[in-house]
Amino acid sequence: MRNLHRAKLLKLIDFLFFDNEKLNLILINMAFPFITAEQAAEFVKNGDNVGFSGFTAAGTPKFVAPAIAAKAKKEHEEGRPFKINVFTGASTNDNIDGELSRANAVNIRTPYQSCKDTRNSLNCHEIHYFDMHLSQLSQNLRYGFFGKIDVAVIEAREVSDNGEILLGAGVGNIPTIAQMADKIIIELNEHIPAEIRGLHDIYVPLDPPYRREIPIYKPSDRIGSPYLKVDPAKIVGIVKTNSSDHVHDFAPLDETTMRIGANVCKFLIGELRAGRIPKEFLPLQSGVGNIANAVLHGLGESKEIPTFEMYTEVIQDAVLELMEMGKCRFGSTCSLTFSDETMDKFFSNIEFFRDKVVIRPGEISNNPEIIRRLGLITMNTALEADIFGNVNSTHVVGTKMMNGIGGSGDFTRNAYISIFSCPSVTKEGKISTIVPMVSHLDHSEHSVSVLITDQGIADLRGKDPEEKAQLIIENCAHPAYRPLLRDYMKLGKGGHTPHCLKAAFGFHEEFIKSGNMQNTNWAEYCK
User: Is the pLDDT of residue 294 over 90?
Assistant: First the structure.
């Protein structure tokens, strides 16, 4: 006690009798200094590898990254270089990707992003972005492939003087990042309800040649700690904050997404009836967005789909509704990506949900070993698919990165049944999402079991390339494009996969030229 400053002693005596929460803050401050976001930014240097907690907007820091961006602007104005390398769990929020991109403060970015400003910067190579399967980043960091981690920035609800950190609504890759970091900055977010305590399951596998099986045999199994444990000597400061994740509601379901959802349910019911899915059903993985929400809505409405569990990377608002109605028994996830309103609803009724949710690191939520063992039915979205079953999830017209592959590859390649869905057309019919050849390949025909659009279902299992093409054209392509796709098949020069290489990207070339794929004239490619 003699080492405590007199002011801290007075505060301690004052709050001992009034407020446990404030007492906890004082005890934390005795172990670690409270600092401003601007002071935290001073620990970040040009060229540093910086890792951030969270997965999507959930669990991401809100204030330190903007302060780093402001520092970068000042350094640039004074003629000095300042860029950092950003490692995350997945996408973040505007406070990280947006602020840093607009400040021209990012050199390297991985593994996934969804910010317009970041997208613009990486597509003109101001940011060096490399796309990765989300399950692989943590282990590749530990293997030393990308160098050391200089600074980790972690959003937390609680931190103890012995280095136990209670994380927020998203985990991502922060267990590995924190383990490797030289310095750790904590954003202590008072907005996160204390009721989040106990929802996490933090586990980091050993690296080869010492790695053992990951002992998860059902989605609800817990194998780790409810806290992230770090070396307290690494914590250089704590920034007090109070902010929600600011996750916005998804757009309401429309006719197209509802049809896609209905077709996914139709397929799954058919598999149940045929006995190809066990009567107990299998755990589900669902991607992010409006189509995913429509599929989940359809599953909830279907009387033939039994209650099920989820083993996935993101739980959205729709899953909470399924839990309330008794359709979804349990959800294992890396992130609670709820709208702010739904997040409040979740925590106000936490005792109902507590035994139905666990939040894991991305390395575990997306782990191929577990996905294969549990027999997941995976449901992801495509930007485009070709008539032979190959899928493009990332690049517009083959060149412009949209967001990234995310976890779709982790799940697709190891699924019991892998389903991809998309609308048959976009841009008011000027773009067909079913094309002769995908302009960028993320998931090959070898990994895609089923393709579903608003038009129908193409079960590609056990089909040769010509059989796949016929199914996809007749069942999944929009009627306006079927004649063009049938005519393309006639251009094929034989072989196992009958492509016409001169015309394979005719749809894309026509869109670049006229803005409408329907104007494609195959004769131009056959001269």
Answer: no
